[in-house]
Write a structure and sequence with these properties.
Helix content: over 70%
Distance between the termini: 75 Å
Number of helices: 9
Largest sheet: none
Number of strands: 0
Number of domains: 1
Shape: elongated
Strand content: under 5%
Length: 266
């Protein structure tokens, strides 16, 4: 009797093809979920109570991490900018650089990354636990739409709250730069703030706030999709949570490039 032949691993090309098909399927599922969320979001009843609860959960509990992140980012940016421009006599432009960098890029992007890590992971864990315990299926049995009850309030709350978090984070980033301008660079408060105000125009503020709306929508859709589609018990919920943080962070970084190009053309 001939010995059994051990199974051979799948060729690399086949595995890569399987990964690509899986990723394309996930992207397609997210697009369909985004479509259904937009449709359900404009249909009555509007579930104002759920929207308010999710807005408080997403917004208030994210203030600490987003504000601290931008505060110290502004402080570090001020020190590095002053050090780099000192040789060229450009220390007077520290306020201009901090204002433009924080408001246009660092504020919305870092806020979105922090929210993706804290809120996105929390949404996926919550919905994933409901999915693996068949609570989502129970909603369907009761003729209630899981998208309407679970997805729309969370995505809507992120879209509404992200601009507010970004504006507060921008203010904290500029305040951090002001502290370093006062105590490390030797500038006066009036001098620094004058440069900040002169450097910013309405389009800069609108660009950063506009990005945050798209970031909030992307984070919400990715988190909700991974949560609802989670399978395999607690281990599956853990994998879905990790996927949310990775995918949401990548989506924020990639979309920031295209949104920057778009807003610069407007």
């Amino acid at each position: 009797m001939s010995p059994a032949i051990p199974p051979q691993p799948a060729p690399i090309a086949s595995r890569m093809q399987g990964y690509i098909v899986q990723y394309l399927g996930e992207i397609g599922g997210m697009v369909l979920l985004a479509r259904d969320s937009i449709r359900q979001g404009f249909r009555r009843p509007f579930e104002r109570g759920l929207w308010l609860d999710q807005s408080l959960e997403v917004g208030v509990r994210s203030l600490t991490i987003t504000n601290l992140t931008l505060l110290f980012t502004g402080m570090v940016l001020a020190i590095q900018t002053a050090y780099s421009l000192a040789a060229y006599g450009g220390k007077t432009f520290v306020g201009d650089i901090i204002a433009l960098s924080v408001v246009r890029e660092l504020g919305p992007v870092l806020t979105a990354l922090m929210v993706a890590g804290r809120v996105g992971a929390g949404i996926t864990a919550e919905l994933g636990s409901m999915a693996v315990t068949e609570q989502v299926d129970a909603l369907r049995v009761l003729a209630a739409s899981p998208v309407k009850k679970l997805v729309v309030p969370r995505v809507g709350a992120l879209v509404l709250v992200m601009p507010l978090l970004t504006i507060l984070a921008d203010a904290m980033g500029i305040f951090g730069g002001l502290l370093m301008a006062l105590f490390e660079i030797g500038q006066t408060r009036v001098f620094f703030l004058t440069h900040v105000v002169d450097a910013l125009v309405l389009g800069d503020i609108a660009s950063g706030v506009g990005k945050s709306v798209f970031f909030g929508f992307l984070i919400g859709i990715i988190a909700c999709y991974n949560g609802i589609s989670a399978t395999g018990g607690a281990d599956g919920v853990g994998r879905a949570t990790t996927n949310t943080v990775v995918m949401a962070s990548i989506a924020v970084i990639v979309s920031d490039f295209f949104l920057t190009k778009l807003f610069l053309m407007l």
